[in-house]
Here is the input.
Amino acid sequence: MCDDHHGSTRRTFLRGAGALTGAALLAGRAPAASAAARRLRGRRPVTFDGTSAFSNAMHIHSSFSEFTGSMDSHLNQATLNSVDVLWWTEHAYTLDSKPYRDVVHFTSLDGEKPAAGQGSKPWTWVKRESGPNGASSAGRVVSTPCSPNDPVSGGALALTAKSTSTTLAKYGFLADAGPDGWNYRDNLNGQSLSIDVMLEPGWSRGHLEMMISTSYHRASGGRAAGTYSLSYRVVPSGKAHRTAQGRTGIVTVPVPADGQTWTTITVTPAQDIAALWPDLDSRDFAFFELYLRAASTGDLVTGYFDYLRFDRTLDGGELFLQQGEMAEALAAQYPAVTQYQGLEVSLGLPHINWFGGTVAVPTFDSISYKAYPAWVEGKGIPAIHQSGGLASWNHPFGYSWTKTVKAVTEQDLLLRQVAAQLLPAKLYGCDILEVGYPKRAGVDLAHHVALWDIMSRNAVFVTGNGTSDDHWGDDWAGLTWNWATSTWAASRAQSDLLAALAAGRVYCGSLAAAPVALDLLVDGEVPMGAASVSSLTSRSLAVTATALPAGSVLQVFQGDVDYAGTGGLSSNAAQVASFGPADLDGNGQATLTVDTSTSSFLRTQVVDANGKVQGLSNPVWLLGSTPPDGIPAPRQA
Here is the structure.
């Protein structure tokens, strides 16, 4: 804390120092830099205390989570967007996968109940067809024939496809596990699938297919960038073989076609990937989608699938170690990007990111979906802190990917509901709140910021960051929620980054906008993120916004720290000043006098020429007295 005397012991300045290391380029060519995502290159901003700005991607999912991202593709995106630090935050439940479905008996297309501990809802087999299917193409569950190996009798998936020409036609189903965990989506390494098949006789032009859609990879080996897939094709004659056609791997499996013989086929996707694309790391492929289909190039193709089994041999801890090994190997190819392993603790809501400390994958063995919220709040978050890490409360309004923004009245109601839960619990002790989210779960950026302001007006000191929660790795800047976080830190060392995050020495912004480095300094000694107690009724605030683009404005907001509690579940921050590029000096700075006759917090935001908020600083708190719960040590000025 500081007293009423404020000298000018520190000068506010921001300069360039040091050149960024160039990135190693793969596939024999330089990736084209995204014009929409130009980041700070060349000279790194340095602020008043000598710390530098390091950009962080703080919520990233690769081939160890449930969509198409790969570690390789994300590191490529980090390089293209000049992001310095990438935090891997895979879902704990996809790493652990113990509550995953491990057997399907095909007793129903939408009502087969999973075994205990394998999710709470049945899968839905969603019809998928392509090509010139004739009227005889069809699929259904039948009670007979069914595999004699299946302990649950009376069900099999019957598929028929008939192309009306020699052009390939497919008819079948996608296994949709839905939002109940997508409980087959995980990393393909260390697992195999077994399925029983039977073919009717009389056809040769076609196949039965089990197709696995996997991960997105950048262009390499003469292949265009895109998502890879494995097509396991069951045929009535010929030799077993595998071949790659671009990003599609074809594994042909001949079986008897007599209408009575059931054959068990077991596949190990990671082994096939290693053989088909040896230039890629076969461990960097996710299990994204599963299709069962009949395919015809003219004949009436008929067959059956039954008794699907998943054998997963690696547990969450082993997969977590595997990712660390892969990160070390990839570091040589992407030297400009520093990688750290975090974790998203996420059996259900809330999702909590774990940054730093001794990260360990929870097993969730004895934790039900219903009991999970109480567990994560009472034990999960404290365990993160006990390990020496920081906890982040993720996507506070939900994880929906919808781009449709809810009506303002509905967003206002959601804001009050979420704030009424989180404020009395003081965010359950979390150190970070995900704020930089345009349109996440139907809630706009303004309401995410308002939730943060509610915390600030009650002296709940939490660092706001910007994230993307990217699961795809194909276009970071092009996402709707495409924000990154910059830390003012002494180095990229994890301890320095964590110290900056704990102290609120952070700003965030859109990867699609020109980078603007933001900072605050009060009376030459109270930095952004800190809280100062003083009886002074006015104080000097220096704001920084380097390279503010033409047409953009730096807005200064101030809100009373009034401890309104649940009686004031809205933002009370109001704009008190604004600065255009011409109003800032050569260092991108300006100074203003702010009224501190009542306790308040101040923050800034960058608004572009179209009125869109493209960047946010963290607050500084100027208080007349010490808050009831005190000031955390990292924030004491």
About this structure: Residues 316-331 form the longest helix (16 residues).
